Amino acid sequence: MFFSLIAIAAVIALFVIVSRQQNRIALVERELGVLRGLVQGASLSPHKPTDAAQKGLPEEAAGAPAAPLADGTAVAEEATPEVAESETWAGPWTKGKAAPAQSAGPIEPAQPATVAETPAAGSPAPAKAAGETDVETALGTRWAVWVGGIALALGGLFLIRFTIEAGVFGPGVRLTMAGILGLALIAGAEFIRRTGFKVPVQGAAGAYIPSILTAAGAFILFGTVYAAHGIYGFIGSATAFVLLGVIGVATIGASLVHGLALAGIGLVGAMVTPALVASQAPNPWALFVYLAIVLAATAATARIRDWKALVAAAFVGTGIWTILYMIDAPDVNLAAVLFISLATLAVLAFVWLGLFLHTGRDAAARGVDWPSIVPGFFIALSALGLSVDPAFASAGDALHGAVLLVALVAVALYRPRALPLVFAAGIATVLIYLGIIPPATIGANALDVGLDAQPLASSDALTFRIGAALGLIFLAAGFWAARRFAATAPRRAACWAAWGVIAPLVVLTALWLTFGDIDRDLGYALPALLLVLTFGAGGEWIARAEEPPLTGGPAVSFALAGAGVAGLLMLHMAFGSGWTTVLLGAAAIVPVLTTRRRSYPVLGWIAVGAAVAVLGRVAFDPTIVGAAFLSRTPVFNWLLPGYGVPALAFGFAAWQLARTTNGRPRLAMEAASALFALLTIAMLVRHAMHGGVIDTGTVTLAEQAIYTLIALGAGAILVAIDMRAPSSVLRYGSMAAGVVSAGLIAVQHFVALNPLLTDESTGTIPVFNLLFLAYLLPAVAAGALALYVRDKRPRWYSAMLALIAALLAFAYATLSVRRLFKGEFIALWSGLGQLETYTYSALWLVIGVALLTAGVWLKSQVLRIASAVLIAVAVVKVFLFDMSELEGVLRALSFIGLGAVLIGIGLFYQRLLTRAARGRTENLPETSG
Fold first, then answer.
1. What secondary structure letter does DSSP report for 179?
2. What number is the average pLDDT over the span 303-331?
């Protein structure tokens, strides 16, 4: 069964490797064909004698096969100087290979090159014959060699199995025969390679027999050593371990000559070896020393040939073995874990990123080394497990995790291309210290965070000290690297500055929420203040290293933004709820004042961040200090400074930004100032109208009327400010205030809170009552605003306000008539009298005439249309309602009044149109003349 599984795995592996290489081989063949055509075209040119003629050689010699090199590569003997130059470059393992091929991807085994014969001029190319040759080449050369290599590998294993089943030879003889077969295949491959192996057929260039024979021999040797240990017990665990490791490393080394596929086979065999060799007393040091050796050998080989996928696979194998050991081992040897993690980083820094560092290939390489992501991930995962897992953290092993995190940062500093390591260390640190926060502190009990409302990671004195040390390390390393790369690599500098800010802030916040007093703790406010000063000074230090200096690039932005967040933390730690909100709003002034000396774009956004933070606080607690501590004194309570001071501070910030950096932050601060000004008035009104309680009770019509007047007034103020200092925020904000006001009036005043439908008391005072406040004053305000914005805003906006004003005035007049007849309560269900019904008709006609007059005087089509609609409603009422409900003189007066009004309106319009026509006629000669 074992040999069957090995055979199936071998077939699959070899076919996968072959299929991956076939596309690349075909590309190389096409490029070689193009190159031959160019060379032969130049040699056969009538304007240039051929090389054979120049040297006195027969022309047939020009088409002879190229002489092979020692490593199996064939190069044309008589190549042009350009071709010869392109086919050679400085490198110990790439004799005869072109430099561009090396930089384009991993180096494959050198392929034989031949000079194809050129058909005589004028003869057609035999296309059909070429197709037949391709099929013949594929079947007779490439596939034959590939399948033959697989057959050799499987044959060795099947031979061992047959001798076992038949009992022909003893176990020792069988294993000796298999070993000899494997060594013979490797020796034969080397002999063929050194004696000048070449394939005279162009299509067979991919069937490189030496590499296939070497792979088959290595495969047989792996199986032989494993059988000697695992099946027969001829050799012990240590011997088998060493032999398998030597075979794997030797196979990886041979890949320098035979290509990436053989390196993959050797790496897989080397990584599987610890799983194949079982021991009664496993030694972690033997495992990890072996893995370190394999990793170093693989990285050296991959560095020479620039095989990124190979070294990444080696890092994956090492990382998986480390994690499996930490999970499965009953008593983990932390020193061994620390050793393999540090050895991995050493291989990354000194072998993979260090070998041939000063050659032209690596000196020109910039950017990020993506294979570094793999060791960063696994080492950060190990550090996370050592710090979070109770089995490790309770024993104080979190210190080992901290050592790994510091090592990641150090290697990232030493090798700039290993930038992913600092991301891995930063993410692990953030996760560790977010995990120490007790769920109850952040109100997460209901979410079942952790086990029995316990933190996910341990929190003790060691965790505290480690957190402080890690925060300082990230801060120092991040800002030093950010200054180092500020001029040459701004993005790399930004990454370092970001983690130099994020890690200390997260650690400080976690320690405060875990060990400090969440309400007020000056012991943590002082470190937060120090972070503010350090981040601010560090940002200036980085800015002076920029090119040109003091431009405020991304690294500076991260540093100064971190100062802003640290300031937010400091205010929360040092002050109570009320003072935190007030001071946080006032703190928006600090970055905008800094714009007088530094025009960093981030400064305005820091002020915007302060506005967002204040908005979040008031959304969480609208009372500023808590409902239980809010005074019931009207106006002069915590609501006034809690909303008013931020409104003033944001307004000053917008004014200052308009004179310095300008841009979108100014617009955002203008919007924030207008919003908090409205909130200040609205909250004070609600506080006063609900007896000092703002979080309970329903909104009344009187309160809603005040909110409507505030919104209309805010719209007018924004328009006035926009006329003096044009701003898109002010322009659209003013129109938004008007639209919101119209929506509130339509929903609240006319429907939801209408005393006709709610039977709310309108008051006992005849004139200055609820109707005056809720309908007449908003009508006057909307009408005044419509007049004010006629030439300053779109026509639809002023028309909307004029219509709202007309409807409010109509509602006030109608409801006032209702109150005159019904008294304080005017609900619909109290019925209608005949005189009241007639009064509505007369009133609506009078209002219609008034609207018509105002529309003509103001040249407002909206008012004229409104008057027409109102008069039409009155006509319908008279003919449909008054005719049936009124009796006697009231019915007659209703129709008489309606007729008189309609005739008067007709005469008015006739006179108006006649005057307009006469004016056009009088102006016609003057215009023509």
1. H
2. 87
